[in-house]
Amino acid sequence: MRTAGRNIKVYVPVEVRFTEEGKMLPENIQWEDGRIYAIDRVLDVRPSAAMRAGGQGDRYTVRVMGRETYLFFEHSLQYGDPMPGRWFVERREENA
Fold first, then answer.
1. Can you give the pLDDT at residue 44?
2. Rounded to an integer, what distance in angstroms lies between the CA atom of residue 81 and that of residue 67?
3. What is the sign, positive or negative, of the torsion defined by CA atoms of 56, 57, 58, 61?
4. Per-10-residue mean pLDDT for the chain, 96 residues long?
5. Residue 9: which of 53, 41, 59 has the closest Cα?
6. CA angle 79-84-86, nearest 5°?
7. pTM score, two decimals?
8. Amino acid 91: pLDDT
9. Cβ-contact 63, 39 below 8 angstroms
10. CA distances from 89 to 52, 66, 77, 82 (A)
């Protein structure tokens, strides 16, 4: 019998394009199993908490394969860090 799981953060590689104005636009997401998903469209970007899995950063509402989902960019806490942040998605972790 399966019981309800919890939401976790899954850090993922993301291919990003920068506009001449400096906007960061994600174009592809690589999932845990290596599959790459093209982002059809970025619908919204806003500062937001990841309410289900925890964490804070910029929440990108994106359309992937016709479905809306959230992609988060978590900023580094250290100003000037060579790694400015990392991308994550929320995923349900199922219990056995």
1. 97
2. 34
3. negative
4. 70 96 96 95 89 75 95 84 86 69
5. 53
6. 135
7. 0.81
8. 82
9. yes
10. 10, 17, 19, 22
Q: What would the two tokens of residue 96 be?
A: 């056995």
What pLDDT, on the 0 to 100 scale, is given for residue 95?
62
> For residue 79, what pLDDT is reported?
76
Cα dihedral 83, 85, 87, 88 sign: positive
Rg (CA), the chain: 14
Rounded to whole angstroms, the Cα distance separating 14 from 36 reads 9
Residue with tokens 């899954």: 10
Residue listed under structure tokens 């990392």: 86
Q: Among all chains, which residue has been given the structure tokens 């019998």?
A: 1
Is residue 46 within 8 A of residue 58, CB to CB? The reply is yes
